[in-house]
Structures are given as C-alpha cells and as structure tokens.
Specification:
It contains 14 helices and 13 strands. The protein is of the alpha/beta class and 537 residues long. The protein has one domain: Peptidase S8/S53 domain (Rossmann fold).
C-alpha cells in the first residue's frame, strides 16, 4: 500500500492549456483538475504580474447562464441531442419535423449559437480530460481578449496632418498591418505566459479562416474607399495576410520547443494546402494539426491537407460537459458537439497521457508517436500528412516501450501487435470484442455527410477596428482559390457514398461521457437534417 502511495505521489502530471472562451472554472468535474490560479501563482512568481492586465483567467461571464429560461434551455439541449442523433443514425419522422421547425426559427437558432459560444471552452475541456490519470487543465481566455490600454503621447500637429492626409487605400493597408500585429502579439503574450507556468500541451480549438478574412477585407475596402476591390487583388492581399501571420507566429512558437501545440484544422471542408487557415497551417516540430473524423472517414465538414493537416480524431456528435450555470436541479448536464474543435482535445488528451507515461519524451517525440501509430487508411493518404486516424492504445503502448527502447523501435514494436496491452480506458469499460458488437461497430462506422454549413467555427475576436473573426457559419467561399505554390496538390474527394445505418436509441440529456479509446463514432443522415449551424468545434 505504501509503495502504491509513493508511486502515485511522484507520478508525473501533464498539463493541457485550453485557449478558449466559455471555460467553467467552477464545474465540479473540472475544478479539481484546474492548475493553481493565476492570482495564487503571482505571490510565488512576481514576474507573472506583468500579465495581470490581460485577465487570462477572467471567466466571470460563466457565473450566470446566457439562457436563463429553463424551458428554452431544455429545447436547446433537445435540439443539440437530435442534431447529434441525426449525425449518427437519423431521426424519426416526429423528431425530424420538430428539428426542421426549430431550424427555421431564426430567433431560436440565435439562442442556440449564443449557448454554444458561451459553453465552448467547457465542451473542449471535458474532452481533454476524457481518459487518463494525472492530467491538469490550465484555462486561458485567449478569445475575445482585448489588448490592454496603453498610454501614448499626444501626436504632434505634423503627425495628425499625416494621418488625415492618408488615402483610403493607405488606411486599408494600415488596418491590415494593425490586425496582423494584434493577432501575433496576442498569441505571443499567451505563449510567454504559458511557458512561465511550465505548460506541456496547448490546445487551440479555434481559427481564422480564408472565407472569413476574404469577406471582412472585401467589406472593409468598400467601407473605406466606396468601391469594390478587384478579386485578384483581394486574393493577393488575403494570401499575404495569412503568410505574414503564419510566418511571424511560427517564429514565436519556435521559441517554445518544450510545449506541444495542438490546432483544430477548421470546418470549411477545404484543402488547407490551398486555402489558408490560421493557426493550423503552421508547420513546426512541436505543432499538430487535427482533422475531424466521422467513424473511419474524414468528416465532410473537416478541412484537410496532404501537407498541412497531420492526423484525424473523432469529431462528430461528441458528448461533453455543459457549464455548471446551466445545471438543472443540481444535476450535471452533457451535450454533444461536432467539429475539429472536438477532435483537437482528443489528441491533446492522448499527448498528455503519453507524457505521463514517459516524461522524458519531448513534443517532437510525442508528435511522432501519435502520427506513426495511427490507423492508416487508403482514403486518407491523399487527405492527411499521416494518412491515418489516432489509435490511443497503440500510441500508449509505444510510449511505454520508449522507456526501454529507442523511439523508432518502440513505435515499430507497438505497431507489430506482438506486445499485448489491455485495451481498457480509465472509465473502466472494455472495448467491444464479441462478433455481434464488432459487426455493429463496422456498421456504425459507415459515414454520412455533414456539410460545412452545419458546423460553426469558433474564431478569435478582439475589440479591434477591423473585426476579422466574427462568429458566423463557416462556409467555403465562392471566389477563386488564392495563388499557391501547392496548387498542383488537389486531392480528389474520397468521401464514400452514404449508406444505411442500423438503429440505436438516442442518448438522454443527462448521459455520462463514454470511453473514447476507439475512434469510431456514430454518423449522420444528411437527407434527414436540414442545413443549420450545428454545434461548433
């Protein structure tokens, strides 16, 4: 007994930082796992006071629900559950009629989006803790974070004249430059802060999309000049914008080689090799870009990229926590979400488990284990760098073997299947092994389409003059694709033809989260689901 206590006392505890908004610090499931608060740490490390004006941990907005009417809340939760059920297996006629009517109600849909935005960080955090012991969380309010007010000297008369004399074109270019600076400065500040806290894994389930930036730049140009911008010129400006923030952010992240950054790949259904997506397009030894899987196949809303999206993880109808403020009669609530924002914390959780097994592994080794122990699929070889989806048990087996073997040998032996390892997760539920259950698993893995129009992307926002990242449904832009040196890489779609699903009972609103060692998720029936804006990544 003493030996067990001794081992647990010295067990490594990996920490995942969640850059997000809507993170419930008071949730009874999350609270014990949250690393010591910023205010407590300032007394130990005075240098952290330099960051207090950014209020990284200010989550006072989670103390009160944004949906106060319990009847409306119940309808929103029912809507989200039916959407998830439709993604997995389809709806009954009565369910479909109710869902369709609610989807056509713009006021109701506005409340659904409001609830989702308010709860997004809590959804992500619950998935980041889905299995494994000794994993801590560190919430970072990286979204909707305004830059601190900085006192500046009054401008001279000559400077004021120079500003007034700028042409509309010059003002437009200046807006873009200022936006670039804000985006890079904000992430840089967060990275420095996390490094001081010794964070191991950084989960970033958000993004700046090509479609959104193109729309905002087009609107801003017309607002400043009164004329429409030429499309080729716009595409050049947008491409340059992404090149600049990706290059500058890469330099920032490269200064923190001890942290592994896990990015959601985006939900436009586009090729990240051709259409920029920030920050997931950043390519460094300590970054991982994650696409969303629908069973064995890439979800149709998920971005992909043979050069810029590394691996796939479950991202369809994933149940997770709802903030405590929404509890009904003191009972914790769970609600399903779809998107690459759900896939990224799956990988962050696996990375933390790997590190807990062998804390001598660095971000590059952890990334290599995750990418090289995945389940390879022919239909993913033109979609993802690894051509595979994560395999938790194989990755954990490889991590354990690295304690005695060289990295490549450990990975090879883990993939060989020669070394058995009990296929269970911390929630205590064994995998399906009977022939009937295995057959059911295969049937459930047959995917259905979910269009990008259904998945809303969480995007960074700030109080800036150029509102680049407003939360809106992320759809592929109809304009010509931007110039790219990767233009020759145009993988053909390999999404399979939708086929029938077997019936399964829908889960109750109060369901507990299932084990997730298997990447198989149940899937949608698009013919039964109208185009809406489902829960986001």
């Amino acid at each position: 007994m003493f030996l067990i206590f001794l081992l647990s006392a010295f067990a490594h505890s990996a920490t995942i930082a969640i850059i997000d908004t809507g993170f419930d610090l008071d949730h009874e499931f999350l609270k014990p796992k949250i690393l010591k608060q910023e205010t407590d740490e300032e007394a130990i490390n005075p240098s952290l006071k330099n960051y207090s004006d950014w209020r990284f941990h200010d989550n006072s907005h989670l103390k009160e629900p944004v949906i106060k009417d319990k009847t409306l809340l119940q309808e929103i939760l029912t809507y989200r559950n039916l959407r998830a059920k439709g993604h997995r297996e389809g709806l009954s006629l009565n369910e479909f009629e109710w869902f369709k009517n609610k989807s056509a109600d713009n006021e109701f849909m506005g409340q659904v989006k409001k609830f989702k935005k308010h709860s997004h960080g809590t959804f992500v955090a619950g998935i980041a803790l889905r299995e494994g012991e000794n994993i801590n969380l560190f919430p970072i309010r990286g979204l909707n974070l305004p830059s601190p007010v900085v006192a500046i000297e009054a401008k001279t008369t000559l400077e004021q004249i120079a500003i007034k004399s700028k042409t509309p074109e010059e003002k437009f270019r200046e807006e873009i430059t200022n936006s670039e600076n804000r985006v890079v400065r904000k992430l840089s500040k967060i990275c420095h802060y996390l490094a001081q806290r010794g964070i191991d894994v950084v989960n970033a389930s958000y993004g700046i999309t090509y479609k959104n930036i193109t729309t905002k730049f087009r609107e801003k140009y017309k607002d400043l000049t009164g004329t429409e911008i030429d499309e080729p010129k716009l595409q050049e400006i947008v491409t340059q914008y992404f090149d600049n923030i990706e290059t500058r952010t890469s330099k920032v992240i490269s200064k923190f080689p001890k942290m592994l950054f896990v990015f959601s790949a985006g939900n436009s259904g586009l090729d990240n090799d051709l259409y920029p997506h920030y920050p997931s397009k950043i390519r460094l030894p300590n970054t991982l870009s994650v696409g969303a899987m629908n069973g064995d196949y890439l979800a149709t809303f998920s971005n992909f990229g043979l050069k810029h999206v590394d691996i796939g993880a479950p991202g369809v109808a994933i149940p997770s926590l709802v903030p405590k403020a929404y509890s009904i009669d003191g009972q914790s609530l769970y609600s399903p979400s779809s998107g690459t924002s759900m896939a990224a914390p799956y990988v962050s959780n696996l990375a933390a488990q790997i590190l807990n097994i062998n804390q001598k592994l660095g971000p590059f080794e952890i990334k290599k284990i995750i990418m090289e122990t995945g389940d390879e699929k022919d239909h993913l070889k033109l979609k993802l760098v690894s051509g595979s989806l994560i395999n938790n048990q194989r990755a954990l087996k490889a991590a354990l073997l690295t304690k005695d073997l060289e990295l490549n040998q450990a990975i090879a032996l883990a993939k060989s299947g020669l070394i058995p390892m009990e296929d269970t997760v911390s929630m205590g539920q064994p995998p399906a092994t009977s022939p009937a259950l295995l057959e059911q698993k295969v049937l459930n893995a047959i995917p259905k389409d979910i269009s990008p129009q259904e998945i809303e992307e969480i995007q960074t926002t700030s109080e800036e003059s150029l509102p680049l990242l407003s939360p809106e449904t992320d759809k592929p832009d109809n304009s010509t694709r931007p110039p790219s040196k990767d233009a020759d890489v145009q993988p053909k779609s390999v999404d399979p033809v939708p086929s029938s699903q077997s019936e399964e009972q829908s889960r109750p609103l109060s369901e507990v989260m299932p084990p997730s060692s298997s990447p198989i998720e149940l899937t949608p029936t698009p013919s039964q689901i109208p185009e809406t804006s489902p829960s986001s990544p």
